[in-house]
Automatic annotation (TrEMBL):
Belongs to the complex I 49 kDa subunit family. Residues 471-712 form the Calcineurin-like phosphoesterase domain. InterPro entries: Calcineurin-like_PHP, Metallo-depent_PP-like, NADH_Q_OxRdtase_suD, NADH_UbQ_OxRdtase_49kDa_CS, NDH1_su_D/H, NiFe-Hase_large. This is Putative nadh-ubiquinone oxidoreductase 49 kDa subunit. Residues 77-86 have a biased composition (Basic and acidic residues). GO terms for cellular component: mitochondrion. PROSITE patterns: COMPLEX1_49K. Residues 206-465 form the NADH-quinone oxidoreductase subunit D domain. One of its GO terms (molecular function) is NAD binding.
Length: 850
């Protein structure tokens, strides 16, 4: 019996895939072989590194520990011959702490050298979430650079914005309105409470106290709501801007903040009752991570890490900014410089932040919230509707930006974790010449070796929790979504439909981190997978070939490259699907995969430097291969599906044509503004270069549907047929088959068909990754293919009279909360006046703050 996943000799030959693997397959057999779905979740940029607490032998130099996965691995001989005593006993060994350790909140990796359980040395590895932020800022206007600061620390958002805004305002030599200063101060303290809640509660949870975490996150949720009401975003607010704040506080918000502040003191007392005098908490934190005042200064500590050692330094007092010179508060300091003292400092800072919040509420002045210089801050919307000059100011501000006088400045604030600093150099243009960021946690992490030496391994958790959150949690959340969907659906094949990574911020040497994060949920379930590459895969500086090569280091990858042309992209290939018992040599179905960058010799750039997918795709290969399959199986009209990340222009036209997507006409989730589709030039104008590809899809007999990603907020399925109330440029609706013969660059002729009956189903896949934009609930589109539904005229697989009109597939979206959304049956009548349309579904939003 043939193996289900046998690879053939050349890469230009399709790999064999059975609808359900036989018992001899490397994949464990499952019951209900004909009722398993294909998961088509579009991948997003995520990261991966080895699981935490992997023990590896000690290398004498320690700086380059032995990797057990290397070819010589554990059996590598030591650099020197040990004497008899050391040969009998291993004293020191190294342990990988993270990047996936539960106590490493984000992507922190420590290589710990241990003597038993005693830490002898700690080597922190940073940069696993490096995005090149400082370099990216050099290519943005000052206003466009602001959102990058939200993402530096996902629990200190508005304070990061505040620091950058103060630096730009110094260079512009402008004075912010008083009301804006008080609003900034108010939300700066709300952000401090948010950060300290995360720090204290997660610290308690890491050492075994779960109850404070559950209680405190109820309060944190209220503060996140305040964020959302004032800025429209719970996390990345972009609210504090050079010149003031984005908009005024909505009516009623100050009253709600007051109501929260009056009761939050009781929550602080309840938390202290659980922890402060708890002998287990004291035993885990007192005398742990001791740093003297002199050492704290020498290590460049700041914030609570410095004040906990007895140094009364707070930038809000020593160098006040915004309205801090008009409020009264005390600066708590520690005595012993250990984890317990730093905990007490944070608990007292909760109370001091409440004092400042009450003063801000009582002293909040009236007036404007941003400077009235329309070259720096946008004019009111009402003015833009009445005054052409105001409209011009608005247009220039958000397209060109504003110039900043030449010079340089350093701005520092008291962020929740310590001194947050921004050094900005201006050359007189609209973009910063240089922007250097001083993150408060970097210096603290650099002292991890000195602070943790002599402590037990368990104490490392308590020490790390003192300086929480090295990076955002999108990557781990994405993996959770994948695990949930895969466990509920148990698919036979997983399609990663584009945008596996974000190539804009990625370099060749670390591309493997992202691919290696997507693959393990599939590998541990022994699932085969196939990929397409989208617009973010290799945009700018990452090789698609590198992604492709990395994929094939893992087992069960079916991704292939069947087109040699270097301009055609990488993932252009097909997979034949055979009968569940492998007894029939004729494929039951063909799966087509297309690279969203392939087929056109030149790639245009838009004004932001992004590539525009202006191409003819691989139409010639697609038509020639489908024709060859028809000749190979002349009596069989083999049904097929197509997967491509960037949708065709037909989907954009459908969504923009009345009634388009509405509650009574194939609604689904349709919140996303249509992104750049295929066939655009550098100016974003549709010039029809994807018309040959659309017509080739219509020309292949038996093609049931194509599935796309790209638009994160869309997940509907539409029928493109003669009843469609829209006209796609370059495609003619006809009642009879109309073909056009064109000659390719190689001299071959190809037949392209216009739209005929029964048409083609066009579907969006569900957005899966938390590395991408949008608050829609993540999930994955499922496709259920049954052999009997492919041959309704006769249940015999050998039926020679099968008709594409009778092919049926079922599809739905499985969401991360376990629910099913938008179940439909794609058949001849789907989407027509005689059949079903896409159901009205609940527009669910994610509850993840990552």
């Amino acid at each position: 019996m043939a193996a289900s996943l046998a690879r053939l000799a050349t890469r230009h030959t399709a790999k064999r895939l059975c609808l359900c693997p036989s018992a001899s397959s490397s994949i464990a057999p499952r019951s209900f072989c004909n009722a398993r779905s294909l998961s088509t979740s579009p991948g997003r940029r995520v990261e991966y590194a080895t699981e935490g607490m992997t023990m590896i032998p000690t290398d004498p130099s320690f700086g380059h520990p032995i990797d057990p996965s290397s070819p010589d691995g554990i059996n590598r001989a030591p650099d020197h011959e040990p004497d008899e005593s050391t040969g009998r006993k291993i004293r020191h060994y190294t342990v990988n702490f993270g990047p996936q350790h539960p106590a490493a909140h984000g992507v922190l990796r420590l290589i710990l050298e241990l003597n038993g359980e005693e830490i002898v040395r700690a080597d922190p590895h940073v940069g696993l979430l490096h995005r090149g932020t400082e370099k990216l800022i050099e290519y943005k206007t000052y206003l466009q650079a602001l959102p990058y600061f939200d993402r530096l620390d996902y629990v200190s958002m508005m304070t990061n914005e505040q620091c950058f805004s103060l630096a730009v305002e110094k260079l512009l030599n402008i004075e912010v309105p008083e009301r804006a200063k008080w609003i900034r101060t108010l939300f700066g303290e709300i952000t401090r409470v948010l950060n300290h809640l995360m720090s204290v509660l997660s610290h308690a949870m890491d050492v075994g106290a779960l109850t404070p975490f559950l209680w405190g996150f109820e309060e944190r949720e209220k503060l996140m709501e305040f964020y959302e009401r004032v800025s429209g975003a719970r996390l990345h607010a972009a609210y504090v801007r050079p010149g003031g704040v984005h908009q005024d506080i909505p009516i009623g918000l100050l009253d709600d903040i007051y109501q929260w502040a009056t009761q939050f003191g009781d929550r602080i007392d309840e938390t202290e009752e659980l922890l402060t005098d708890n002998r287990i908490w004291i035993g885990r934190t007192k005398g742990v991570g001791v740093v003297s005042a002199a050492d704290a200064l020498n290590y460049s500590f700041s914030g609570v890490m410095l004040r906990g050692s007895g140094v009364p330094w707070d930038i809000r007092k020593s160098q006040p900014y915004d309205a801090y010179d008009q409020v009264d508060f005390d600066v708590p300091v520690g005595v012993n410089g250990d984890c317990y003292d730093r905990y007490l400092c944070r608990m007292e800072e909760f109370r001091q932040s409440l004092r400042i919040i009450h003063q801000c509420l009582n002293k909040m002045p009236a007036g404007p919230v941003r400077v009235e210089d329309y070259k720096i801050a946008p004019p009111p919307r009402a003015a833009m509707k009445e005054n052409m000059e105001a409209l011009i100011h608005h247009f220039l501000l958000f397209t060109k930006g504003y110039t900043v006088p030449p010079g340089e400045t350093y701005s520092a604030i008291e962020a929740p974790k310590g001194e947050m600093g921004v050094f900005v150099v201006s050359d007189g243009s609209e973009r910063p010449y240089r922007c250097k960021i001083r993150a408060p946690g970097f210096a603290h992490l650099g002292a991890m070796d000195q602070v943790s030496r002599g402590h037990l391994l368990a104490d490392a958790v308590a020490i790390i929790a003192e300086n929480l959150s090295w990076g955002p949690g999108q990557d781990n959340k994405t993996e959770m979504v994948m695990n949930t969907v895969l466990d509920l659906e148990s698919p036979q094949l997983v399609v990663l439909n584009g945008d596996l990574i974000t190539g804009e911020n990625t370099y060749l040497h670390n591309a493997s981190h992202y691919i290696d994060k997507i693959v393990p949920p599939l590998v541990k379930r022994n699932l085969p997978w196939a990929s397409t590459y989208g617009n973010h895969d290799s945009q700018f500086n990452l090789s698609r070939e590198a992604i492709y090569q990395r994929e094939h280091l893992w087992p069960n990858s079916l991704t292939a490259n069947m087109v040699d042309d270097p301009n055609a992209g990488v993932t252009n290939y097909y997979l034949p699907v055979f009968s569940s018992d492998s007894s029939n040599p004729i494929p039951v179905m063909i799966l087509w995969f297309f690279d969203s960058r392939g087929g056109y010799l030149f790639q245009e750039l838009d004004s932001s430097g992004n590539e525009i997918p202006r191409d003819e795709w691989v139409v010639e290969w697609f038509l020639n291969t489908s024709t060859a399959l028809s000749l190979q199986y002349p009596s069989h009209n083999i049904p097929s599906l197509a997967f491509v990340h960037i949708p065709t222009n037909a989907m954009l036209v459908h969504q923009n044509t009345s009634p388009g997507i509405s509650p009574t006409h194939e609604p689904g989730i349709n919140d996303d503004n249509p992104l750049a589709q295929q066939g655009l030039d550098a100016n974003g104008t549709y010039i029809g270069t994807d018309i040959p590809f659309m017509r080739s899809l219509l020309s292949v007999p038996g093609l049931i549907a194509s599935f796309s990603g790209h638009d994160h907020g869309n997940d509907w399925c539409m029928k493109w047929d003669l009843e469609s109330n829209f006209t796609v440029p370059g495609i003619t609706n006809t009642t009879t088959t109309t073909t056009t013969t064109t000659t390719t660059t190689s001299g071959r002729q190809k037949q392209l068909t216009n739209l005929t009956s029964p048409g083609l189903n066009l579907c969006f896949s569900r957005h899966s990754g938390y590395g991408g934009y949008g608050s829609w609930m993540r999930g994955g589109r499922q496709i259920l293919i049954k052999e009997q539904d492919m041959f309704l005229n006769n249940n015999n697989v050998n039926n020679n009279n099968n008709d594409d009109d009778t092919h049926i597939i079922q599809t739905w979206n499985r969401l991360e909360d376990g629910t099913v959304s938008g179940w439909v049956e794609l058949n001849r009548t789907y989407g027509t006046s005689q059949g079903d349309t896409y159901p009205v579904v609940e527009d669910k939003k994610t509850d993840c703050n990552c």
